[in-house]
Predict the structure.
Amino acid sequence: MRQAKGPDLFFTCLVYFILFLAAAIAIFPLFYVLAVSFSTEYEYLTRGFFVIPKQFTLDGYLYLLAHPGFTLAFRNAVIISLGGTALNIVLTSLMAYGLSKRWLKLRSTMNFIVFFTMLFSGGMIPTYLVVRSLHLLDSFWAIWLSSAIAAFNVIVMRSFFQSMPLELEESARIDGSGEWRLFLSIIVPLSMPVIATFTLFYLVSNWNTYFSAIIYLNDAKLMPLQVFLRQMLVEDDPTISNASTVLYKYTPAAKMAAIMLTALPLLIIFPFLQKYFNKGVMLGSIKG
């Protein structure tokens, strides 16, 4: 392998320095949040910025894990994320597979409709009226169905399906495979990079659900984790008009612990999908 010399070496070092600086800027706030979550309130108020607490404590995490509101919100977030992501992937892959077939009637029209939704949406109020008319308010289906398919993901996945050799489909049909068997036995296994990539996209979106929840859900028992985090800030904010109705006192450690526990599932899942991430996006975009 040829070693970099002169200008090439300088450019390589510059790139690594910029990447290291960007990584440090991104990761230091996370270290600070982690440190505060294991510290006492006195240390948080007196030390300022620190990444290693002097007095290690688990009080923030123990308080949250014993808090019925947090555990309920965490459960709701898991249900919304798993159910929504499964529905997203199934509908997106099926729609993209259908639109990738050149023999499909009105294919150009349907592709244009999908693209049109990327430029103009129905709007928040019309969407709410549709959800209400379907009697889906105060149910997870309101969140799942209102964001079931992302047009961009459909277009990229459709381009990936179009890039597959026609010989595979023709061979499968000669062997007697129907459309469903062809899709499940051949297309899906070969499409795992792009499917895993969009699984991650949808999972992050569903896990971070906030706006849809406060619009479609009125029952406090159905609120997901992001709404609970917002509630933690509001209940301890003295500028809020209903501050007299504060039910809980959240310490800085409890707040930071809630942030860490909220980010933890995605931090655990991402390494397992990372190997598919770049490959899946590039396959769907370049080959299209």
